[in-house]
Design brief:
alpha+beta, Arc Repressor Mutant, subunit A, 5 helices, 11 strands, about 20% helix, elongated, disordered C terminus, DNA binding, Sig_transdc_resp-reg_C-effctor, phosphoprotein, Forkhead-associated protein, SMAD_FHA_dom_sf
């Protein structure tokens, strides 16, 4: 088949992309119809602009759209990319190979100025979507409040301002659409893994030999009546632990 196309993995059906916009969804009037309850009637659009193709999630489904397992709002596509609309999987083909960065995402607008607290709210909102698990909804206002140790009412006020700053219209799944937009702009990214050393002690503490002339702590183990680290009592003098032995001069004096 000449030109870009999309293949539905469950049925094997191949649908050529239209020269401009190809609609994807569960409704009867779309070009790529997916009979899956997790797909909205009008779920997404696949847009062609010259030699480039990108997918746009319309934000009408709580299950969202993913490219190669990652949630997106809009993203430039490459030949062989796997697009998940809800749980329905499709594969894109027929796109000529070019030097296109697969991580490039089209941005709807320049990112607005954000306060430090608004960045914290967005990071907490998007954290579930940036995990390795598939089909994860963004955090709720209650989850964000618990994460940031603030009231739920304060979080909702921040979200209202963020909806305005990112121009997210009212409607269902508003948090999901906000999260998709933030991730598409690259404002929130997964944190790199933190390496935790196995031993928290200072180097050489465990393997340091005991000081010369000092008995190691375990030397007195198993010696009845002797505390660890203390010298043993004089031989033949029971109960004389810690006292110097009696000399001959002292015996004569007594």
């Amino acid at each position: 088949m000449e030109g870009p196309f999309i293949r539905i993995e469950d049925s094997g059906q191949v649908v050529p992309l239209r020269p401009d916009v190809t609609t994807v969804g569960r409704g009867k009037g779309v070009e790529v119809r997916l009979d899956d309850p997790s797909v909205s009637r009008l779920h997404a659009e696949i847009v062609r602009r010259g030699p480039y193709v990108y997918v746009v999630d319309l934000g009408l489904s709580r299950n969202g759209t993913r490219v190669n397992g990652r949630p997106i709002a809009r993203r430039v596509l490459e030949d062989g990319d796997v697009i998940s609309f809800g749980t329905a999987r499709c594969r894109l083909g027929g796109i000529p190979r070019e030097d296109v960065d697969p991580d490039v995402e089209l941005r709807r607008a320049v990112a607005p100025e954000l306060t430090r607290r608004e960045v914290d709210v967005l990071t907490s909102l998007c954290r579930p979507a940036l995990s390795d698990a598939a089909f994860v909804a963004p955090a709720t206002a209650r989850d964000i409040a618990t994460d940031l140790v603030v009231t739920e009412a304060a979080v909702k006020q921040h979200l209202l301002r963020l909806y305005q700053k990112f121009r997210i219209p009212e409607g269902t799944n508003r948090r999901t659409r906000l999260a998709n937009e933030v991730i598409a702009m690259g404002l929130v990214r997964p944190l790199p893994p933190v390496h935790v050393p196995q031993q928290n002690r200072a180097p050489g503490v465990e393997n340091r030999p005991p000081a010369e002339g000092r008995r190691p702590p375990h030397a007195a183990a198993g010696r009845p009546g002797t505390a660890a680290g203390r010298p043993a009592p004089a031989a033949g003098r029971p109960g004389a632990a810690g006292r110097p032995p009696v000399t001959g001069a002292r015996r004569r004096a007594s």
